[in-house]
Amino acid sequence: MKRATAIAHPNIALSKYWGKCAGAGNFPAVPSLSLTLEGLSTTTRVTFDANEQSDVLSLNGVDAQGEPLVRVSALLDRVRACAKLDLRARVETRNDFPTASGLASSASGFAALALAATRAAGVDWDVFTVSDLARRSSASAARSLFGGLVELPAGAADVCETDLLSARVFDGAPDLAAALRVIVCVTTEGAKPHGSTDAMRATKDRSPYYETWLRVAPRLHDALKNALSLGDFEAAGRFAEESALAMHGCAVAAGFSYFNEATVRAMNAVRALRDQGTNAFFTVDAGPHVKVFVRAPEVARVGAALALVPGVLRTIVCSPGRGARLVTEREGSLEAVEAEAP
Ligand code: PMV
């Protein structure tokens, strides 16, 4: 038996990835920049075991079949091919937050799986290569291998099939990066109705604004990076909000709306707070939750206002998080076994 366990945190994009390059490889069509979040975690144990006849996936204690298992096996196949290993695996994964509902559980999930699977198989890749493995399953997962602010470049059309593309830490202004907080407004405990892969494909095929998005997204990304480098929270927040609204506008035109009533109310509450002079900015991913960027001193006031929004079930305050890391399991508790990724 070969076993390893890893922990990874979700990440929330300030400049959004939406859309894939043509061809295989799951390369993002636009660059993105995210913040890895402490406070939400996925823990994944991978055991390559001669007793297993096929790969087995247990997700929050329930055996999973169908698409989730197929995606996990595809990643394991890449690891097996590299390690020349002919064993099936048991994958046991748990999230301490709602799964597949737009809280980036696929990012933390595939980051933890990529790290645990490579180490269990005895493949000693560096963090960039593990990140690239995770990207092939879920592009946003590439970012969760790293802590803090993380940039994932776009793939280039002519190199998509072969070239590796790795996420990397973006330093920005360290004081601003350390002071950033995300207040997650949970608006449902259920799963999201549209998976991001299908929605991205449909957006590309059907949205009249897709070409505009491909032009605008990199500009917003560069402007966001510049604002973060200057430590300008207000400008960074505005660009992050613009990126989210442009992404959702483009997807809505293809028939994919991720918002519910509480999503809209929470976005309006953030706008109202801003009108009263508070620097708070929202983003929304492929699910109905609203994530609000604030600086640490504003957390209590903004959090209290958001908790009162009808339909916001609860709020979770997240600080900048660490990258994915291996852990050992001793008597039911988890301990770090190696230095975390940068
Ligand atoms: O990596 P995926 O396929 O789960 O897509 C993530 C897409 C967004 O969360 C909406 C944006 C992003 O950059 O994380």
- The residue-averaged pLDDT reads 92
Major sheet: order of its strands? 6-5-7-4-1-14-15
Give the helix proportion (percent range): 25-40%
What's the number of helices?
9
Strand content: 15-25%
Quick structural gist:
The chain has 342 residues and is an alpha+beta fold. Helices cover 37% and strands 22% of the residues. A 7-stranded mixed sheet has the order 6-5-7-4-1-14-15. A 4-stranded antiparallel sheet has the order 2-3-8-9.
Describe the protein in words.
The protein is of the alpha+beta class and 342 residues long. It is 37% helix and 22% strand. It contains 9 helices and 15 strands. It has helices at 66-83, 105-120, 127-137, 174-179, 196-206, 210-229, 233-252, 261-275, 299-307, and strands at 2-8, 11-15, 32-36, 42-48, 56-59, 62-64, 89-95, 149-152, 168-169, 180-186, 281-283, 290-295, 314-318, 325-330, 333-336. The protein has a 7-stranded mixed sheet. A hairpin with a 6-residue loop joins strand 11 and strand 12 (290-295). Helix 1 runs parallel beside helix 2 (105-120), helix 1 packs antiparallel against helix 3 (127-137) and helix 6 packs antiparallel against helix 7. The protein is globular and about 60 Å long. (3R)-3-hydroxy-3-methyl-5-(phosphonooxy)pentanoic acid is lined by residues 13, 16-18, 32, 106, 138-140, 196-197, 285-286.
